[in-house]
Amino acid sequence: MPIASFVVSTDGENGPKVEEEIKKLPGVEIYGSEFKKDENAYHIIIVIESETFDDMEKVERQIRYMDGVLNVALAYGYFEDEYEKIEKGEIIPTNPFHGLKRAEKDAEKMWFGDDEDEKKGH
């Protein structure tokens, strides 16, 4: 089961609101938060535990697109269990390391403002 910790940085004004929204997400636990007056930023330490990396990525994306979120930074990730399941054939990844062209196209869409996920709020 993948588990990872992240630092979610928000603008100072929206930090508490973002923290409340994060609390509602399944598989997410908040370990602490702090307002840094000199940065006018609010930092939230979270851990996400999910069944698959794809599920974790969906939750991370929800957080990334919340109003006021400036950055979601991975601090630590443990994915060995999922890798072992992939090796045994128990899980087939949705993108088994051949989606670079798609990732480039997605990045280009985001760069030019054509990101469908962003429009949908995901």
Secondary structure tally, helices: 5
Query: Main beta sheet, described?
Result: 4 strands, antiparallel
| Overall mean pLDDT | 84
How helical, in percent, are the residues? 25-40%
Strand content: 25-35%
Radius of gyration: 16 Å
The N- to C-terminal Cα distance equals: 23 Å
Molecular shape: globular
Provide the succession of SSEs: EHEEHEHHH
What does this structure look like?
It is built from 5 helices and 4 strands; from the N terminus they run βαββαβααα. By secondary structure, the chain is of the alpha+beta class. A 4-stranded antiparallel β-sheet has the order 2-3-1-4, covered by helices on one side. A hairpin with a 4-residue loop joins β2 (28-36) and β3 (41-49). The two termini are 23 Å apart. The mean pLDDT is 84.
Structure in a nutshell:
This protein is an alpha+beta fold and 122 residues long. It has helices spanning 15-23, 53-64, 80-88, 100-111, 116-120; strands spanning 3-11, 28-36, 41-49, 69-78.
Features:
alpha+beta, four-stranded antiparallel β-sheet, 30% strand
Outline the fold blueprint.
Elements (H helix, E strand, L loop, with lengths): L2 E9 L3 H9 L4 E9 L4 E9 L3 H12 L4 E10 L1 H9 L11 H12 L4 H5 L2
Antiparallel strand pairs: 1-3, 1-4, 2-3
